[in-house]
Amino acid sequence: MRAIVQRVSCAEVRVGGRATGTIGRGFAVLLGVTHGDTEADADYLADRIAGMRVFADAAGKMNLALAAAGGAALVVSQFTLYADISQRRPSFVAAAAPAPARQLYACFISRLRARDVTVETGEFGAQMELTLTNDGPVTIILDSRDRR
Fold first, then answer.
1. Which domain holds residue 46?
2. 148 inside domain
3. Residue tagged active-site, from 38, 80, 131, 139
4. Could you confirm whether 80 is annotated as catalytic?
5. For residue 1, how many other CB atoms are within 10 A of its CB?
6. Is there a contact between 102 and 109 (Cβ–Cβ < 8 Å)?
7. How do residues 31-90 score in pLDDT, each as one tens digit?
8. Which residue in 24, 39, 34, 26 sits closest to 3, CA to CA?
9. 78 is annotated as an active-site residue
């Protein structure tokens, strides 16, 4: 499972012209699922993201996690994180099929919420428009297969 995490001052996802998720300060999380991912991968990424201390404390240092900073997460499914671009036309065969990907997307969201994170979402499988203001900019790439 992969996640692109951007610290944002605001973010919104729209489907068919209507907002499905809007946050102020927090994280915009693009989430991709591959074959063989499990709930353990969802739990690992949720734990890492909820605990990532990249918000400024009173001294201006990156020292606060999402909940402590009063932030929220906007989670958007993105199968293209598993694109193979060895050819000019990307292949997405490494992305999980929709049914297991949807289940793990929902699992990831519930695991974030279990860590006291307010979560807004896109719409799984829909054509979405994501707008955000990257704060910093701070952008972090996580992969559950890179556990240390």
1. 2-140
2. no
3. 80
4. yes
5. 28
6. no
7. 999 999 999 999 999 999 999 999 999 999 999 999 999 999 999 999 999 999 999 999
8. 34
9. yes
User: Are 44 and 144 spatial neighbours (Cβ–Cβ below 8 Å)?
Assistant: yes
Residue 132 · residue 8 · CB < 8 Å: yes
pLDDT tens track for 94-147: 999 999 999 999 999 999 999 999 999 999 999 999 999 999 999 999 999 998
* Residue 92 is a catalytic residue: no
CATH of the domain at 35: 3.50.80.10
Q: Of 6, 34, 55, 79, which residue is the catalytic one? A: 79
Is 147 part of any domain? no
Distance CA(100)–CA(77), nearest Å, equals 12
**Omega into 98 within 30° of 0, i.e. cis?**
no
**Considering just the CA atoms, what is the radius of gyration of the chain in Å?**
15
Q: Does 74 reside within a domain?
A: yes
For residues 72 and 75, what is the distance between their CA atoms, to the nearest angstrom? 10
Q: Is the pTM of the predicted complex or chain greater than 0.70?
A: yes
- What pLDDT does residue 147 have? 81
Domain tally for the chain?
1
- 146 within domain boundaries: no
Instruction: Spot the catalytic one: 6, 34, 55, 78.
Output: 78
